[in-house]
Amino acid sequence: MDFNIAIIPGDGIGPEVTAQAKKALEAVADEYGHHFTYTEAMMGACAIDATGNPLPEETLDICEASDAILFGAIGDPKYDNDPTAKVRPEQGLLRLRKSLGLFCNVRPVKAYEQLIDNSPLKREIISGADMSIYRELTGGIYFGEKHLSDDGQVASDGCSYSVKEITRMAHLAFKEAQNRRKKLTLVDKANVLETSRLWRKTVTEIAKGYPDVAVDFLFVDNAAMQMILNPKQFDVILTENLFGDIISDEASVIGGSIGLLASASVGTENALFEPIHGSYPQATGKGIANPLASILSAAMLLRHLGLQDEAASIETAVEKSLELGFTTEDLKPENPLSTSKVGDFIADYILNPEDTNRNFKNIHAGQSTII
Ligand SMILES: NC(=O)C1=CN([C@@H]2O[C@H](COP(=O)(O)OP(=O)(O)OC[C@H]3O[C@@H](n4cnc5c(N)ncnc54)[C@H](O)[C@@H]3O)[C@@H](O)[C@H]2O)C=CC1
Ligand SMILES: CC(C)CC(=O)C(=O)O
Ligand SMILES: [Mg+2]
């Protein structure tokens, strides 16, 4: 089959990790007889440098015309360290999500058996943990009215949610729970926030239409603690934009590294696939960034296109790389592979899953070289 894929590499490690995901997609295309056409587009700090705009109109057009979007990461210390900058890379990503109506961000998290013994968390706590975080992505405090007083002494960020925004998210999360272990946890701060009380009220009402799903409610501060103490209690977590952003980075510790966590951002028309991590600027160009989150995002992209076996072939290759220890330094500080070598292994394994000797040979040949 033919598909148009928009690629937004972005800033920092974004280009390095999306290049590995593209290798995996090309291996899938070869192996299964598909044809993917890629169109690259700019967003973030690189787009500001080139055009003055973090989300050029052309990027939006390319994304709208695509069957799916693969995105790396945006962000640059020169903006992070300048609180007065009026134009910022993150505005590009937020505008893209809003413009394409990508209101639902799905972040699957699971403890990989191959990594548990190296985890800072105890085996009995994380073994078997498997959850899906449903994070609202186009509302809440990231999109509220911002204000800085003229004298620079007072700042505010507004947070609002409508029943409509909560309802469309909740239905997707309940349907996911029906396909999983039939449990949904709403994470909020309903003891303090009016918006959270609206989430609770709306979700309680919607739950009546899903009697097979058990619902519970957790305040976000407690949820942050439960995530580390007893992550196996979670199946589907439904939450607002800010809380979902924070608890999913926390949950990545259960997965073994933030460099392993993929996500899908979906709405009515378009769909975008991205690692949950940022541009990790300290690693730019060093060949040490873990590309597996981007590669697993490509698997989610394929699943979205209806290519189930193809997606599974990427996931199997990732499991194999973890089993063999063909991973970057975040997962294997001693004798790691480079970003690019991990990408090579995944592509090679997709094409030759039976040929273990060849995989070993290719990888060991370049193991001592980073990049
Ligand atoms: N979706 C996006 O594009 C996001 C962009 N950002 C931006 O990224 C920049 C850096 O933000 P940070 O808070 O440092 O978050 P970050 O996610 O870029 O990095 C935080 C830490 O996570 C680890 N890490 C991240 N990606 C990794 C990978 N692929 N492999 C191995 N380890 C990895 C590293 O230890 C790193 O120090 C900022 O400009 C921020 O605004 C942050 C989060 C998401
Ligand atoms: C611009 C930020 C909201 C990006 C981020 O941290 C995320 O989406 O996880
Ligand atoms: Mg984040």
From TrEMBL:
Binding site for substrate: 97, 107, 135, 221
PROSITE patterns (alphabetical): IDH_IMDH
SUPFAM superfamilies recorded: Isocitrate/Isopropylmalate dehydrogenase-like
Enzyme Commission numbers on file: 1.1.1.85
Residue span(s) of domain Isopropylmalate dehydrogenase-like: 4-346
Gene Ontology terms, MF aspect: 3-isopropylmalate dehydrogenase activity; magnesium ion binding; NAD binding
Annotated catalysed reactions: (2R,3S)-3-isopropylmalate + NAD(+) = 4-methyl-2-oxopentanoate + CO2 + NADH
UniProt keyword Transmembrane helix present: no
Any single Pfam family the record assigns to this protein: Iso_dh
Primary localization class, coarse: cytoplasm
Gene Ontology, cellular component aspect: cytosol
Enzyme class: oxidoreductase
Protein location: Cytoplasm
Subunit structure, as described in the record: Homodimer.
Function: Catalyzes the oxidation of 3-carboxy-2-hydroxy-4-methylpentanoate (3-isopropylmalate) to 3-carboxy-4-methyl-2-oxopentanoate. The product decarboxylates to 4-methyl-2 oxopentanoate.
UniProt xrefs under PANTHER family: 3-ISOPROPYLMALATE DEHYDROGENASE
Protein name, UniProt field: 3-isopropylmalate dehydrogenase
Gene behind this protein: leuB
